[in-house]
Design a protein that fits this description.
By secondary structure, the protein is an alpha+beta fold. The strands form 3 sheets. It has a 7-stranded mixed sheet with strand order 8-9-10-11-12-14-13, sandwiched between helices. A 4-stranded antiparallel sheet has the order 1-2-3-4, sandwiched between helices. The protein is elongated, with a radius of gyration of 23 Å.
Length: 333
Amino acid sequence: MTAARIEENRSHPRLPALLAAYHLVNQAGKGAVVATVAELPAVYRVEAEDPAGAFAADTVLLATPPGADAPAGCVVLKAPREGRAPEIKRLWVEPGARRRGLARALMAEALRRAEASGVPAVRLTVWDGREEPLALYRSLGFETVASWDDRPDLLCLERRLDVIERLAPEAVRAHAPAGLAALLVDAVDGGASVGFPGPLDPTEAASWWLGVAEEAAGGVRDVWAAHGPDGRLSGVVTLVRVGAANGRHRGEIARLLVHRSARGRGLGRRLLAAAEAHAAATGLRLLVLDTQTDSPAERLYRGVGWTAAGIIPDFAADPGGTLRATTLYYSRL
């Protein structure tokens, strides 16, 4: 199935009509029916008449259905203000374009951007009784929290976000027996070709990460991990530095792992971006990696601009023992 096209554009010519439809329906739902944009309360009218100005500090996303030439949905990710978490607002999909995944695609991209900004949480409000949007928000991990808005029947929801941090060697050692080992075991159990036959014993996985801690202490490898609000690790990536004198401009991305329970939220992309940014900041000019040919990871690397250099057949055995091809990738920084 072809995915909807998501774009950021607060000046798109279709945006005023989308926001106008949202507000007119929303007013009707509150029992304050109005027929035209001119009759909307001023705070809402300005959004429909001049969205570029009303949302000048915010992120406005639009969704175009597959095969269409104009957006049929929108959402706004408000910028954080006064130390408060950013808020998602104005989620709207035209009635004729519903049941095609546009609302979920818009929400997923808004959450991805919120996570990429490093904020610890994102929030939203929804009227009690709106079962369909409530079901969507809860499926995306939002939970009801104490209200910050005293309007009756308005529910306040919040989702805590994954945080990515670079792990010092002692932190790698501390996480090796549990969180890091669990990520490696989960990858092997899921069929990923990451250097180990399956099933992988957690003790062996922990031992491998303890070796990584020693490499980190020696300046050979850097490690980034993502953890959720409960502190459990949800993803990891490492950057290996080349020791040869003629290769010190080059590094290798290795063991980019996202737990299966945390996939689909852009976490792999964020982990990779963290490693790339550090590589560039510390003088590396070229990154390389290899990944199993036709694996889901290939879509990630291609999607963020990495270049495929070639395929090597029968490069490594997958966890089940079958030899698989690998594709070599590189990225110039």
